[in-house]
Structures are given as C-alpha cells and as structure tokens.
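In this section we walk through a basic example: taking a raw amino acid sequence and producing a predicted 3D structure, encoded as discrete structure tokens. The instruction is simple. Fold the sequence below.
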Amino acid sequence: MARKKARYHAVKVGREPGIYLTWAECQEQVTGFPGAAFKGFQTLTEAQSFLGDSAATPKSAAAEASAAVPDSEGSPDRVVVYTDGACTGNPGPGGYGVVLKNGGKRTELSGGFARTTNNRMELTACIVALQALPAGCCATLHSDSRYVASAMTKGWVTGWRSRGWRRQEGPLANADLWQQLVALCDTREVAFEWVPGHAGNRENERCDELAVEAAAGEDLPLDEGYQPPATVEKPSKAVPQESGQTVITFE
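The resulting token sequence is shown next.
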C-alpha cells in the first residue's frame, strides 16, 4: 500500500518551530539545523500533539487567510455553513460533509456515493446544507472549492442558466447539481465565501473528516447523476442521499 503524503509537517526543534503545510516550508526550518526534530502527520490534531506545549496553528499564507475568516457560531438571523467534498480516485468512492451553526445549535451532515467525483461531492455538500435550511433563511456558506465559490460569486451560473445550463463551449459538467444548487439559492439568501482547505480552519477540517469517513463507508449508493465527461449530453436529476441527515428546526 502506498504511503499517504503528510498534510501537516510539525517542526519541534528547528529555526522556527511550528506546523507547516508543505515539505518545502518545513525543510527550510530543519535543513542544516543541529538536532532538528520534525515529523509529518495526516491530521492537525496529531501534529499539535507532537509539538506538545509548543503546539501551534499551521504557518503559511493559506493558514493566515483561513485565520482571517471568523469562526462564527451563527445567529438566529444568519446560519453559518461549512461544506466539503472528498473522493478517492476521482472518479471513485466519494463523500460530503456539512457543518451548520445557528446560534448555540450545531448540526453535522454527511453521506457518500460509490462512484462519483470530487466536484460532484463539493456541490452535493452545498445542496444538502441548503436543503436543511428553510426557504427564506439567510446563510453564509464557506467552501474550500474554488470550482463552487467562483461559479457562485463571479456570475458563471448566471450565464450557464441563460444558455439552458450549457457553457459557451458546449455541455456543462454536473448540470444536474448546478440546477439544484441555484434553485435552492433562489429561495434563500446565501453568501458564498471561499476558505483555503487544510489550513487549520476547525470547521473546514471537520467537514473534510466527515467527507472522508463517508467515502470510506460500505454499501454506498450510486450517484445516478454521474456521467463520464465524454458521455455528458444533458442534465439528469439526481437527488443527494438523504438517509441519516438532520434538518435544523428554527425556534
């Protein structure tokens, strides 16, 4: 079995101890440093545990950008949403994870499919999150997918919809999911915000964990909307998995 690439590099003894998101950054701190102590980890928690009392948040431009996003608990007037998708193989088994925060109330949602893509899981996470919120709700949705965030904030979806869910160049991949997402946004006030992935944002990390766990599940259903790129011709209607999901009740 191939060894997984470390996502966090913890430097316990080096020029500047801390947690780094790339090997290149870590290498700068330990190469030629007497008695350097460092190790790679899959999770931020493991890296922080290795550092012990000197535990820190990741050091990188991405981490600083992530830290700039306030970890709000939401309010009765606006729900804070975090989403993420994961896929093994792309296409392959995939999963999505969602965290909803409304004041003191917190809800986690997740699910998976036997054969899908990472982009479809990123979109499905957003769809499932908004399906859990009532029409008329105000929400801020954080996604580490530029595919999703750019389409929703730069007007791409407006052009796709005006052309019957097609790109100027031809068929639109994942048109079935884009239609569902935009329809949900039509009846909710949703602000999309991009956050860097794997950069120490607690809720983004939690969504990633949920998505990865879901993708590793057994007896996953088929993503009936998935079509290999060469065969995409027209949108099909696939509804994200609903089993095990919880809908927030607003009081």
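Looking at the output, two observations stand out. Residues 78-216 form a domain with the Nucleotidyltransferase; domain 5 fold (CATH 3.30.420.10). Residues 25 and 108 are 33 Å apart (CA to CA). In the next section we compare this with other chains.
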